[in-house]
Amino acid sequence: MSTTIGVWGVDHPHGGGHLKALESAAEVGKLLIWDADPSKAQAAVDGSAKAERVDDIEPLIDSGDVDALVILLPNRDAGPATLRAIEAGIYVYGDKPGARTAREMREIVLAADKSKAHFCPCYPWRIDPVTREIKRLIDVP
Question: Which parts of the chain fold into alpha helices (H)?
């Protein structure tokens, strides 16, 4: 199965790492990338074998062309963007914290309950082999 992932924003401190992970994931067949600065989106596309730059974020949210959306926006913008995508029924993976306030996050959670979409905050270390080994050692009775 080939998955199409939308990427909303690339000008983020962790953007390069997320894009590298998406590029290397065999399950990801296509990346559709949008950024408010088209030159930054194009730079991300130029370094990818899977990516295409899109000129407008609206079709990624409204068209159903993506299986999930990775949101890599500044904290001030991430909550509203995540809420919008979740309300549209799109699964979202976003860099933490995902919202500026508990109230913003509550809106996202309520929208996810209604739309059945999911929001997964970025915390990739939880699946790292070293982290899993540490947890295993801690959990030993």
Answer: 15-24, 38-46, 58-62, 75-87, 102-115, 129-139
pTM for this one? 0.84
Quick one: 80 exposed, middle or buried, by C-beta within 10 A (0-12, 13-18, 19+)?
Answer: middle
Decide if pLDDT at 6 tops 90. yes
Just give the CATH number of 3-139. Answer: 3.40.50.720
What percent of the chain stands above pLDDT 90? 61
The residues, ordered by sequence, that sit 6+ positions from 77 with a Cβ below 8 Å of its Cβ are 9
- Band (1; pLDDT cuts 50, 70, 90): low
Give how far Cα 127 sits from Cα of 64, 71, 122, 123, 130, Å: 29, 20, 11, 9, 8
Tell me which residue of 71, 102, 103 sits closest to 86, measured CA to CA. Answer: 71
Residue 46 vs residues 27, 43, 51, 53: alpha-carbon distances, Å: 20, 5, 8, 9
The ranges assigned to domains in the chain are 3-139
pLDDT tens for each residue of 45-62: 998 999 999 999 988 898
